[in-house]
Amino acid sequence: FLIAFLSKFITYFGSLLAAAIGGTFLFVGGWFFFAYLIGCYALMLSVSLIRKLLKAQVVETVEKTKGKDGVEIFVNGFFPTLSIFLFAITRSPVFSAAALCTLSAAFVDSLSSDVGTLSKAKPRDILTWKPLEKGISGGVSILGTLTALVAAVGFAAFTNLLSGARFFLCAAVIFSGTLIDSVFGSVLQAKYRCNVCGKQTEKTICCQTPTEFEKGVRVLNNDAINFLSLLFVFALCFLFFLV
Question: Does the predicted model carry a pTM greater than 0.85?
Fold first, then answer.
């Protein structure tokens, strides 16, 4: 986590919260869950460093551009941590699978977004298929989608190994997180239009000028959409693994 903080991949408070989540996974879940979490963070850090080496363009349309903060870490870590506590109390394999699937879904979605921004082609809205600015929620790209699919299969294999949950169900649940995040992002997330540069954005301030609300639900930013998406994945875990 110190390496992640020093690389500016994560903010100071984000690194503290991430360390707290890591401690929970270690002392409540055990070494296997902790190693899985560290592996996820190492993968995301590697992608971040690769983007820097490739001098990838900073996506200016997103609300946050300076590393993952405490809110993002909380949103991505809430359901996995809740599942770990429930697993420790009940020892039910459903909760161990839910912990790994929700954690995997969060990282797969972030991974596909980061890799997708490296695509030269503009992303397209998952529902209308209209071209979007890079970074706008609801947009998908071939590169990002393939990344999510491959990553979901890889994470599902580890989830199956650690929890015993069925591989194909794990892969479907993990990959669904990325899809539903794009759908929610397209329909629900607040989007704005800059009156100076004319671009659609997720920012309330662009070009040092207040932007004009265009569509979505005003109170639902990217963090809220991610939380709703992981809630959906959490619910799917019970639907699939209790059957």
Answer: yes
